[in-house]
Amino acid sequence: MKKPRLSNIFTELKILAGCCLLCIFFAGCTAAPLREARKAFYAGQPLEAVNALSEAKKIPNRDRLLLFMEKGLMLHHLGRYEESANTLLKASGLIEKQEVISISQQAASLVTSEWITDYKGEYSERLWVHTYLMMNFLLLGKDESALVEAKQALKMLEKYPEPLSKDHFTRALIALCFENFRQYSDAYIEYKKLAENLPDPSPAASQIYRLGMNPGFREEAEKYRKFIPPAASSILTSQSSLLNSELVLFVSSGSAPAKISGNIIIPPSVRFSFPQYEERRADDAQVQLAGFDSQTHPFSVTTNIGAVAKASLQDRASKIIAKETARAAMKEAMARAVERKNEGILSVLVRAAFFLMEEPDTRCWETLPAFLKLFRFPIQPGKHQNLKAVIYQNGVRKDIILPPFSLSPGQKYYYQIRISSGSDIGN
Amino acid sequence: MTNSGLKSTLFLAILSAIALTVSCTATTRTVSPNEELHYDEAYDFSDKKKIVDSLVQPLLETSPLANAADRPVIIIYGIANQTSEHINTSGITDDIRQELIKAGRFRFVNETQRDNIANETDYQYNSGAVAPETRIERARQLGARYILSGTLRSIEKEEPKQIRLTKKSLRYYSLHLELTDLKTALIEWADSVEIAREASKPIIGW
Questions:
Q1: Predicted local confidence at residue A412, as pLDDT
Q2: CATH of A27-182+242-426, one of 3.90.650.10, 3.40.1800.10, 1.25.40.10, 3.40.50.10330
Q3: How close, in Å, is residue B129 to chain A by CA atoms?
Q4: How many angstroms away from the CA of A99 is the closest CA of chain B?
């Protein structure tokens, strides 16, 4: 057998060292500014968090969608809705561009890991870009732009109906956008879909009844009468108006689960890795309005962000498994080829490198809340001062005084609140 | 490798490098606003021009105001965007107004300048800085007789999922414009323009 020359061994080791460095670079490496920003956001310092993301050049191109999503959400909770909308519109534009599958990235990811590819967002995250845009535009009083986003969100819901079916918040927000333009038939359809997807249709029943009684879906709307909760029965007796003045609250609470790494190891060195959402306990919050007439029942729906995100990831499971299998086969073939040419340490190191490189893509929109809640409180037109949102979470009461506002008949006032552990940000 | 083989390889390498450089060079060219140009199926400036041209002519020729001798006063209440794209429809209304003003048969209330007009009038009367004889006379604005308003709608359709290399999508736009008599609340004139376009995008790229 021919003995390998010492210089050849050194060259191979250098190549291998380079490969190892590349692995470390790509394996589980989120851009530092994103990590810092998320840390600051959850430490109750949203301004510092936004500043950490101000230099987009420091974020690699493959993580640009994450940059726009995280920054857009942070700006939203800071009350900088115009900037938030502009940032999330960039995310929306990028999602559209990313529909093209890059051959070079896919080929490279077959011998490295998914981290090398552009992050395209889970179906749920792509939907929530439009959800936050809708909220931003409504908070800015740009109802027409909110309706545009409602239609974009609707496209996503139609494209991925199964995994996104439990996003009740977005569905209800779409219906609200239609109502704002008196497109009651469209709103009615959305409330009906909401009722079908809710475990208990009662939150949507009063809306279906209210809308159905007016434009002529009376017979169908009557079917939902029995689901109307007793607290909201005033809708059956009083002359219900489609143009009620309302206080609309967007309440976000807790933090959504992040993705973690799951592994299956087949000896001696084949590793299948896949992303999965961690199990994170999050306590839902109850919201009341102090000084509010309890005879009038508010409309409210909640989306469990973690549940929808998990369903979206699950929907992609078959694609992830297929890609994982192809990658494992490719790496095994390459490792065997090296083994045939080199005996000893090099082939062992190549296998080790491939093993370490096999890191699942755990990138996700991490600053999302655990729950998104929509409340619509019918209130009298006129000036409102010292109105208080009373929030109960984990048995703890938090009072948030809303800024003074005045409403003309049929007008809506929008306000958003984020409740995290120990602190709240409201605008 | 032989000498001729080496030369051929070198020649091919240089040729590839030239091709790559030329194809990657940034270029610009001036296009005429009248040229119909579309990169995809979405709304663009060519559509705006087509919409304006298609609606201004009937308004000038077939509307009941076409033969009005008193140059009726119109206020534009904008075009509602009911598409699924963020389209600035004020560009359409601005162009329609401009074309109608050029025709010299209508007058328009400048609704967007109302606050500025009020501020300027207030300054002339209350600041003490404006010579009284040069102050504009108050309560002499003309009231509009007609409202011009409209709606832009779109319908989109994408090819269903199947094995393919390109994705086709179809988009239809319709702009409906109407003229309402403020006194009688009757719609005196209405017309619409439609644009439908199909585009295909590659699914796979480099």
A1: 95
A2: 1.25.40.10
A3: 37
A4: 7
- Give the pLDDT of residue B38: 83
CB A327 within 8 Å of CB A116: no
Chain A contacts of B80, Cβ < 8 Å?
144, 181
Quick check: B63 pLDDT over 60? yes
- DSSP codes joined into one string, B71-140: --EEEEEEEEEESSS---THHHHHHHHHHHHHHTS-EE--GGGHHHHHHHHHHHHHSS-S-GGGSPPSS-
ipTM confidence: 0.73
Q: Which of A101, A151, A181 is nearest residue B204 as measured by Cβ atoms?
A: A101
pLDDT in the model for residue A2: 46
Chain B positions touching A147 (Cβ under 8 A) are 82
Residue A262: closest CA among A321, A304, A305, A318: A321
The larger pLDDT score, comparing residue B156 to residue B180, is at B180
Taking any CB pair shorter than 8 Å as contact, residues of chain B touching chain A are 80-86, 156, 167, 201-206
Q: Parse chain B into domains and list their residue ranges.
A: 41-109+144-202
Of A137-151, B4-18, B179-193, the range with the lowest mean pLDDT is B4-18
Please determine, looking at this structure, whether the domain spanning B41-109+144-202 carries the CATH number 3.40.190: no
Mean pLDDT, residues A297-313? 94
Which residues lie below 8 Å from residue A139, measured CB to CB, with a gap of 6+?
A81, A414, A415, A416, A427
- Binary contact (B84, A181; C-beta < 8 A): no
Residue to test with chain B: of A89, A100, A106, A177, most B Cβ within 10 A: A100
Decide: B107 and B75 in contact? Cβ < 8 Å.
no
**A positions 104-133 inside 8 Å of B (CB):** 104
Q: Which of A137, A147, A178 to mutate to test the interface with B (most CBs of B within 10 A)?
A: A147
